[in-house]
């Protein structure tokens, strides 16, 4: 008997496998295909030759915890205690899972804003809790009336994702005021703020829960070195939370992974001093603009992309197919893999949209759009 009977293979795995089968250009799964910074690879090579291959402390390499605290202060003007309020995790997904397992109880309710990343619901269900899926508005901004209506005495947590995967939207200060006002009414509700794309924003900078002092004592904030430094396969991220919540999260973390890859932590600890994260947005903005210019010649209608390395596009003006069938046909007939949005919704809502990952080299983006022009 399955604990997760309705969950199967993720759409990310399905589309990447299909891309491999048909030798399609893969704009589906969210990983860059360009080289990692040579300086980071050199650091890995240097540390691999040293005797640093045993367990590190459960919470993380202490110098790296200090660097994360410094990065948080520089980026958001928030001072955190590296010894008690920071945790290095085996990717953001492990951090999310550990936080939910530690802080959510049987029969609690957790609000998820759809479309949403698929790892949230599984962690909630494994707690014996109830995921409450609240759709965003048609423009993918928070529907505060619907969120307010969903809140009640059983609500334990609300999960937010900003910048947002899959839509590329970012929250405004008004959204945070609405959230703070709502949480004032429910003092036991915890905010799980998924901010893995925090440094990939464009015209308007991302507002972090780290910048909202009113939220500090009730927020778990999720970050990702994998996303920020183009090293998704390293599976390394971190959490920031008040000590009262972090104590409980660490209890779960120690029995999930105990400690995170030592070589990666040593290398990243050095690399943080060499890289300027504030420049990451302009790097990806060039890719976004290049891809959008290419896509203007296709039949797709492009939504605004404010952050992340994803572009959502509608095909509703030229096809009535459901999004999964349409996405599969793009692979088999045109050789381009994307992600349909319906799996990001609890009820599989079909909004006739696809998600394209533009974290690719220019040649890949050019070849993909040349194929899409044939539609």
Automatic annotation (TrEMBL):
Gene Ontology cellular component terms for the protein in this record: cytoplasm
Domain Aminotransferase class I/classII large per the UniProt entry, residue ranges: 24-372
Keyword Transferase: yes
Keyword set includes DNA repair: no
GO molecular function terms listed in the Swiss-Prot or TrEMBL record: kynurenine-oxoglutarate transaminase activity; pyridoxal phosphate binding
Pfam families: Aminotran_1_2
InterPro entries: Aminotransferase_I/II_large, Kynurenine-oxoglutarate_AT, PyrdxlP-dep_Trfase, PyrdxlP-dep_Trfase_major, PyrdxlP-dep_Trfase_small
Cofactor(s) needed: pyridoxal 5'-phosphate
Keywords linked to the UniProt accession: Aminotransferase, Pyridoxal phosphate, Transferase
Entry's family note: Belongs to the class-I pyridoxal-phosphate-dependent aminotransferase family.
Protein's name according to its UniProt entry: Methionine aminotransferase
Originating species: Flavobacterium psychrotolerans
């Amino acid at each position: 008997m399955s604990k997760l009977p309705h969950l199967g293979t993720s759409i990310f795995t399905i589309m990447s496998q299909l891309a491999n089968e048909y030798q399609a250009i893969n704009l589906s799964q969210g990983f860059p295909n360009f080289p990692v910074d040579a300086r980071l690879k050199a650091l890995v090579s240097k540390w691999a030759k040293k005797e640093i291959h045993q367990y590190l402390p459960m919470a993380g390499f202490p110098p790296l915890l200090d660097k994360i605290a410094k990065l948080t202060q520089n980026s958001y003007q928030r001072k955190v205690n590296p010894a008690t309020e920071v945790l290095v995790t085996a990717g953001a997904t492990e951090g999310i899972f550990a936080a939910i397992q530690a802080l959510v109880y049987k029969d609690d309710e957790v609000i998820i804003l759809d479309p949403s990343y698929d790892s949230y619901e599984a962690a909630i269900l494994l707690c014996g809790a109830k995921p409450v899926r609240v759709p965003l508005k048609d423009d993918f901004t928070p529907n505060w009336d619907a969120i307010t209506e969903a809140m009640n005495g059983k609500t334990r947590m609300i999960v937010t994702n900003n910048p947002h995967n899959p839509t590329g939207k970012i929250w405004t200060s008004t959204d945070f005021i609405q959230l703070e006002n709502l949480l004032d009414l429910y003092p036991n509700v915890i905010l799980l703020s998924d901010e893995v794309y925090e440094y990939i924003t464009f015209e308007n900078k991302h507002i972090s829960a780290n910048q909202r002092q009113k939220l500090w004592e009730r927020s778990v904030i999720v970050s990702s070195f994998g996303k920020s430094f183009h090293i998704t396969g390293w599976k390394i991220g971190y959490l920031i939370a008040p000590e009262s919540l972090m104590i409980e999260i660490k209890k779960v973390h120690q029995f999930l992974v105990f400690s995170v890859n030592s070589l990666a932590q040593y290398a990243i600890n050095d690399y943080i001093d060499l890289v300027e994260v504030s420049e990451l947005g302009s790097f990806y903005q060039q890719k976004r603009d290049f891809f959008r210019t290419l896509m203007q010649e296709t039949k797709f209608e492009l939504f605004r992309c404010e952050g992340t390395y994803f572009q959502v596009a509608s095909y509703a003006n030229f096809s009535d197919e459901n999004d999964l069938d349409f996405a599969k046909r793009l692979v088999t007939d045109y050789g381009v893999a994307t992600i349909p949005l319906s799996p990001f919704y609890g009820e599989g809502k079909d909004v006739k949209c696809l998600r394209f990952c533009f974290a690719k080299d220019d040649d890949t983006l050019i070849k993909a759009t040349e194929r899409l022009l044939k539609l």
